[in-house]
Write a structure and sequence with these properties.
Layout lengths: L3 H23 L3 H4 L2 H5 L3 E3 H6 L4 H7 L7 E4 L2 E3 L7 H12 L12 E4 H7 L10 E6 L10 E6 L5 E4 L2 E4 L1 H10 L4 H13 L5 H10 L6 H12 L4 H11 L7 E2 L2 E3 L5 E3 L3 E3 L4 E5 L8 H16 L3 E5 L1 H6 L1 H16 L8 E3 L9
Parallel strand pairs: 5-6, 13-14
Antiparallel strand pairs: 1-3, 2-3, 4-5, 7-8, 9-12, 10-11, 10-15, 12-13
Length: 357
């Protein structure tokens, strides 16, 4: 038999029990709280993020000991998995290390990947991804590491997200790469590939290099001038050097040729529009497979079917025996002068890819 006193006691206990139950429902478990940041950050988090989520310092220390489930990638930056990090996780770790602790590191407001690391995410093979250059806002200073090179700047750029990582746009990344590279051929090659891939227009790159006051460096100025002329690779730059030393007419570099009805025909490395002569520089690096070689032959057939005279050479031939290539060009340019009309192909300029971000 329940007495009035028992009934009153149960009535007083029910609200407290309900309150504790609601608290258990609204307060997520610790593992769920500190997993939010890694979930949107490729399983990478900073010590600040983990402690703000309620993970004790002792837990972080114990889990990052040798053989533990977490790994320390950089000072105060951790990979919350046992397997090795991939290139995206290493790149994001550099941004997390450089970002201001209280800021959202994915916003691109206080840190952004740039230089070779940003270009590597876009598929520019010649750009080294490590050490990672990361922009930070001047006058802020940050100690670098063997894996991260902070780059303070007062010209904060527009940023984009590449593979989940805040990055500068390709034109700024290319300029920052050039500013920190001393080897002329690497500068020449990387800038050419950025433009060749369609990530930026050569005029925009030239303007960015000028804004960064980098055109005073001879290697950068020469590379920028080649890109404005239409050159898109080291081999083409070497061919341009060879042709410039002769009295041959100046060709168009990487002009996009179209048929009169607007159908794309091809984009030869060098093209003389008045004579209808093309020079193709076929590197073994890009033509070593059967499919690539067949594609090269089909492109040549398309050009020849529209009356364009094609000369093919490799970079090594241009380098070792340029006189043979020049003799063939002279012959074709002379033959073309006797033709009644130039070939039916229209040349257009550089085409830039839209940024798919």
């Amino acid at each position: 038999m329940i007495t009035p006193r028992q009934t009153q006691h149960q009535t007083q206990q029910q609200p407290r029990q309900k309150t504790r139950q609601q608290a258990r429902q609204t307060k997520p478990p610790q593992s769920a709280r500190h997993a939010r940041a890694p979930r949107r950050q490729l399983n990478v988090a900073t010590r600040h993020q983990l402690t703000a989520a309620g993970v004790p310092d002792g837990t972080i220390t114990s889990r990052t000991r040798p053989g533990g489930p977490w790994q320390r990638l950089l000072p105060r930056v951790y990979l919350l998995q046992t397997g090795p990090p991939d290139h995206r996780q290493r790149a994001l770790a550099a941004v997390l290390y450089a970002a201001e602790p209280a800021a959202d590191p994915l916003s691109g407001d206080t840190a952004a990947l740039t230089g070779g690391a940003a270009l590597a995410l876009l598929g520019i093979r010649e750009a080294a991804s490590m050490p990672a250059d990361v922009l930070i806002r001047a006058p802020r200073r940050l100690t670098g590491t063997p894996a991260v090179r902070p780059l303070p700047t007062s010209r904060w750029p527009r940023t984009i997200t590449v593979c989940g990582i805040p990055s500068t746009r390709p034109v700024r990344a290319a300029a920052d790469f050039a500013s920190r590279t001393e080897h002329p051929d690497r500068i020449r090659s990387v800038l050419a590939h950025v433009v060749q891939a369609g990530w930026c227009h050569p005029h925009d790159l030239h303007a960015e290099l000028r804004a960064a006051r980098l055109l005073a460096r001879p290697a950068i100025r020469a590379a920028a001038s080649e890109l404005l002329a239409g050159v898109r690779s080291i081999a083409e730059a070497q061919a341009r050097d060879v042709l410039t030393a002769t009295d041959l007419p100046t060709p168009l570099w990487n002009a996009r040729l179209y048929t009169p009805d607007g159908t794309f025909l091809a984009s030869p490395d060098a093209y003389w529009p008045d004579e209808g002569v093309a020079l193709e520089i076929d590197s073994a690096e890009y033509h070593y497979t059967r499919d690539a070689w067949h594609a090269t032959l089909r492109r040549r057939l398309r050009l020849e079917s529209h009356g364009i005279l094609v000369i093919s050479a490799t970079p090594s031939i241009l380098r070792d025996t340029p006189t043979e290539v020049l003799a063939a060009l002279r012959t074709f340019l002379t033959l073309a002068a006797t033709r009644p009309a130039p070939p039916t192909a229209l040349a257009r300029g550089h085409q830039q890819l839209p940024l798919p971000f």
